[in-house]
Every structure is written in C-alpha cells, then in structure tokens.
Amino acid sequence: MIRSWESRGVPLRVVLEGIKNFFEKPVSGPGRKKKAASLVLCDSFVQKAFLMSRTRKIGREQKIISRDDKKSATMDLVRYFLQSLPEEMSFLQGDFHFALQILEKKYPDEEKLEKLDRTVDEKLINNASESLVKRIRSEVLSEYLNSGKEEINRIIEIKLSRFIRERFQIPHLSLFYY
C-alpha cells in the first residue's frame, strides 16, 4: 500500500489524513465494531484525502482556473463521493446524481448548482444528530455571547454544515468553491 501511494505521488501528510479519517469514521449499526486496522482498509480514505487535497490546491494557485477545470474537479469529487457514499449520508444520493447531470452538460447551470449546494446544506442541518447540534450550539453560545438569536442560529447552521461536510468529506457542488 505504501509503495502504491508513493508511486501515485500522495504526500505523507495526505496519507496520514486519510488514515486519521478512517479511524474517525463512525461505525454504523448497533453493536458493530471497527475492523482491525489495515492499510488496505485505509486506502479508500487515503484516495479521498488525496483527491480533496488536489482540489483544495486549486484555490491556492495564483493562475486563473478555467471553468472546464473547475467543472472537471467538481465532477471528480461528486463521482468519488457517490462511489464511497457513507450510509449515514445516503439521503444526499439523489442530489449528487442530479448535480452530475447538471455538470455533464457543456455549459452547466451554475445557479442550479448553487441552489443544490444550499439544499445539501439544509439536509445536512435537518439530519444532524441532536447531540451534535447541542455540542455546536454550546460552542457557538460560549463564543458569541453578545450576538442576537437570529445571528446565533445562522452561525450554528454554518458551523454544523461545515463540520458534517468535513467529517464525511462531502464536496461542494458549486463551481465557485474550486
């Protein structure tokens, strides 16, 4: 496995990120336990981390990224997400298939992709566990003591959506992010 990652040019920090994500992934189902650790089991997480790492670099580069490159990066991330769709996120499957249909067009409707991205965020927020919502609410309330109720609720939703997207490596659908 290590040689495979090395031959593909996966940086060590990305390999470590993928392995970390493997161990942090919740095990679904009652009474289920995580399998014994093996680099083979970590491979899909390392691949996903590498893909995410490559797309994150797009925004850091000083050159202008073409719309086609953004579209291609988004399509790759969406396809990979659908291939490795976590069971807990199965409610997003239809939205990501619809995003692929939009992205496969020569000139994808960016407004539809942005709207779909907002829909995904709403679904993530609405399907979040009560314990996660309570934890994030507590963090926000301690950090933003003097903010109004509407602003606090907006911040909670943003933090909740970001946390879930990062935890499950859910890509954005809008080309704006790439």
**Describe the biggest sheet?**
none
Total of domains: 2
- Rg measurement, Å: 18 Å
Number of helices: 8
Strand content: under 5%
How helix-rich are the residues, as a percent range?
55-70%
Query: Structural class of the helices, strands and pairings?
Result: mainly alpha
pLDDT averaged over residues: 85
The strand count comes to 0
User: What is the 3D shape?
Assistant: globular
Order of helices and strands: HHHHHHHH
Q: How far apart lie the N and C ends?
A: 29 Å
Low-confidence stretches: none
Short structural description:
This protein has helices spanning 2-7, 12-24, 39-60, 67-83, 93-103, 110-126, 130-143, 149-168. It is mostly helical and 178 residues long.
3D structure, described in words:
The protein is an all-alpha fold and 178 residues long. The chain has two domains: 1-28 and 36-63, no CATH class; 64-178, no CATH class. Helix content is 67%, strand content 0%. It is built from eight helices and no strands. Helix 3 runs antiparallel to helix 4 (67-83) and helix 4 (67-83) packs antiparallel against helix 5 (93-103). The longest helix has 22 residues, at 39-60.
SSE map:
Elements: H1 2-7, H2 12-24, H3 39-60, H4 67-83, H5 93-103, H6 110-126, H7 130-143, H8 149-168
Defining key terms:
178 residues; 8 helices; mainly alpha; 2 domains
